[in-house]
Amino acid sequence: MKTIIFIHGMFQNPKSWDNWIAYFTDRGYNCIAPAWPKHEGEPEDLRNYPPEGLGDLHLKKVIKNIEALISVQDEQPILIGHSVGGLIVQLMVAKGLADIGVAIASVAPNAMLAFDWGFIKHSALIANPFKDNEPFYMDLESFHESFCNTMNMADTKIAFEETATHDSRNMLRDCMGEEGHIDTEMPHSPLLFIGAEKDEIIPAELCERNAKAYSDEVSISAYKEFTNRGHWICGQEGWLEVAGYIAEWLQEHETYKYHTEQARS
To answer: How far apart are CA 59 and CA 65, in angstroms?
Structure first.
């Protein structure tokens, strides 16, 4: 039974993967969705009672935890990550720790930027250096504008109440620094990038540019864009289409890797 590790992004925790875990478990995968440090528990509790030291959380700590989880698996897992979780997937693939990686609406490595107003505005609000280590406190209006811009407010409210958390500004700051560096010219296991057409946080064109930055001719780096989706692509109406596409892609490339390995042996 192949293992999938789902890696959430900022302002989320494992609750955001509940539907995906059910979907891929039904297809025979062993599914794990770890919480980042300071993100364990119910999102409502995390919003009402922000964990002490949340603002001090850094990308390096999350990476260390994911690496530790990977190290106790019987074989290299498939990694699926959203947003900052997508960048963590890329970092693990670069370290040779993932069998296959899927990066959904992913933060790009190497301080790769998009000259898009939504991207610039939201990145500046979160990374604001004048806020030091004060956490970014997510509220319903901000969640609607940044995550759920293609949804009505009623559906956004449900998504917010069920999954939204506050977060450390240092996570995004670290993504833009040395911790977020990847040599995209090196060989790597198969990578699939998913973009959302109307994403206000990670523009689709940045996702596509991210995928094309991987230049090794032998390795697989694919890109797929879904229309009328925002950053909440994993939870909004139509998420089944996204999960289904990924499931087919995984099956295709698991088979490809198996036959390639058999030929080499």
So the answer is: 10
